[in-house]
Each structure stands twice: as structure tokens, then as C-alpha cells.
Predict the 3D structure of the following.
Amino acid sequence: EAQVTQNPRYLITVTGKKLTVTCSQNMNHEYMSWYRQDPGLGLRQIYYSMNVEVTDKGDVPEGYKVSRKEKRNFPLILESPSPNQTSLYFCASSLWQDNSPLHFGNGTRLTVT
Amino acid sequence: AQRVTQPEKLLSVFKGAPVELKCNYSYSGSPELFWYVQYSRQRLQLLLRHISRESIKGFTADLNKGETSFHLKKPFAQEEDSAMYYCAPRRPGSGGSNYKLTFGKGTLLTVNP
């Protein structure tokens, strides 16, 4: 089944403790992206990747890192999480062809205390 | 700067009433236009895209280039339409800021019985 898989679904951590949220897609998509979803602010793009070893900042990249060593994986890294990074995170992927839609993962709900 | 505006954060209608969710964009050229939907506790998924000129679950969306709008409409709302709806334009082609995908802040539609 074609899908985008994020892990974990839920994560509670403490300020400053490094964490990684994984994202994997099995559709051979070139494009992958991370979003955070917050009430009243909608979806905001954190980072995106156009292909292996090619990444760039979205609208809210501060406090996050990403890597794209393989086409299928695009992990999101929080080196020193803070409470303002408490949010619902979505990974998405797409073919980069005209009118190809984004395919989303199930989301990761992160709480930083 | 690219901007997407969904003016209504909340929209409440009764079952059987018409519904229109507004989306205005400020992109140069001819962006590709998408609507995504997020049902309660589920992942975002594509609802429809302009290029397909399709009707999905009774929803249609008309592009008005003069007003730079892509409003989502349904003549008779159903309770199962209750969800968060996001408008997402995308600039076609590759390169530069075309890879930054901006979503509107979303409209939460509630259809009351």
C-alpha cells in the first residue's frame, strides 16, 4: 500500500532532550516536507527536500534540522526541544510533477514539558 | 510574497444548506490549486484539484483568475462533511520558491443536524 509512515504517533519529552521523528514513504517521491499544525495558525512548513541531499528551509525552520540521505526517508530532528515546539507534526511527500498532490503521514503529536 | 487567505476560521451550517469555503491567493502566474481535507483525528488528504475539474463528495471549486480565488462549494452539506479544509496553491515547475508549499490557515466546517 502506498503510504507515508511517521513514527512515533505520540511523544512526550522534556526540554533539551534531543529527539528524532522519522518519516518514510514507499512511492519513490522526490519531494518531501515537514509541517507543524497549531490551532489558529494552520499548517506551516518547516523544511522541505527536493531530492536526496537537497533540503531547504520552509517558513518556520528555527529549532529543527532535517536530513535526506535516502530518497524514502526524511527525519525531523529537534536537537534541543523547547515547549514552543509542542505541536502536531505532519510529514508529506509528492512527485514533483505538475498537479501532483501531497500525500500525508498520520501525524506525530509532540509535547515538550 | 506568496500568500493564501482563508478568511473564515469557523463555518457552521445546517445539514442540507449550501456551503462555500473561501480561498484567495496572491501568486503570480497560474498556480496549481488544491483543496485538502482533514477529518477528525485523521491525516490530511487531497479533496480536489483545479486541473481535474472534478466533483468529489459533491464538492466543486471554481477558479476565478480575476479575483484570484478558488472557493470550495457544495450545494447541500452533509454531517460527514464536518472537517478542517485547507486551500493550497502551488506554483508549477521546479526551482526556487516553487518548492515552498504554503497552506491557508484552514476553515473548520461544522455541519449541524
Remarks:
- Chain B touches chain A at residues 6, 9, 32, 34, 36, 42-46, 49, 51-52, 86, 88, 92-94, 99-106 (CB under 8 Å).
